[in-house]
Amino acid sequence: MISNLEKLKNKIKNKEFFFGSSVNLTDPTVVEIFCEAGFEFIWIEMEHSSIDKNIAQTLIMAAKATGTPVFVRVSDNNPAIAKPVLEMGIDGIIFPLVKTVEDAQLAVKSCKYPPEGIRGFGPRRSIKYGLMDKFDYIKNADSSIWVILMIEHIDAVNNLDEILKTSGIGSLIIGPHDLSGSVGILGQVEDEKVIDLAKTVIKKAKSANIPVGVSIPYNIENVKKWIERGVDFIELSGDLNFLTSSAINCVSSVNNLLKSMEK
User: Fold this and answer.
1) Most CB atoms closer than 10 Å: which of 144, 226, 239, 245?
2) Residue 237 — very low, low, confident or very high, per pLDDT cuts 50/70/90?
3) Cβ(237)–Cβ(217) below 8 Å
4) What element of type H or E holds 213?
């Protein structure tokens, strides 16, 4: 049976664009809604949210129940932080603020067992709580998780040629906001300087045959721009942004209606 991750890898192989969204809230209902609505992957946000390990596993279970690939962004490029998340049965792990080849190598090694890596052995949910043969798991574990590196700093762009030589990288994701901050123009994500850096990342990743995505707020024109720039996939907005924008639109629409009825 094709794995959740293989669905996305096949899309890349067939040059088919795909998109997903991130989850910052702690209710697994949000994950179910996003999956059933048609997002093609779920990004569980542990870097900028209050989601802890217990909550993360519940959200992962909700995504897995729908057959939707699930990625987790950890708070730091640290083997001790990555290790328990890897045991939850995820499809991909996102390492933030990778800036050097050493950072990239550490991220990859954190996800692989010896001799290729430094991951400690103690699978839990990833081995179906012991129902899966451990040797079958060990044989496939190193290749079953997408190692995803965030490229969100000018240093990463400058070091990208060396970073891309790291064996075991599954994908890159561009973070335009932090990338803009690293060149002194935080928040100006459409500034020519930021876009030129992003285009460099896309071009070099394509040359290295590494899939590349971007994390952006939802705006259909933005989606079109980034597809035209050559990304393979996009992470869009997230639950907080969708909830906030819907609430603002609702309040604004009703207030406008009330004002029009007063006339």
Assistant:
1) 226
2) confident
3) yes
4) strand 212-216
Tell me the C-alpha distance between 198 and 214, whole Å. Answer: 9
Domain at 4-262: CATH architecture: Alpha-Beta Barrel (3.20)
Q: What angle do CA 216, 220, 225 make, to 5 degrees?
A: 70
- Report whether 209 contacts 13 (CB < 8 A): no
DSSP labels, 111-173: TS-TTT--PPP--SGGGGGGTS-HHHHHHHHHHHSEEEEEE-SHHHHHTHHHHTTSTT--EEE
Structure tokens at 197: 């850096």
* DSSP helix/strand/coil, 186: coil
CA distance 55 to 129: 18
Helix (H) or strand (E) holding 256: helix 239-262
The residue extents of the domains of the chain are 4-262
The pair of structure tokens assigned to 45 is: 């946000």
pLDDT at 263: 72
This prediction's pTM: 0.95
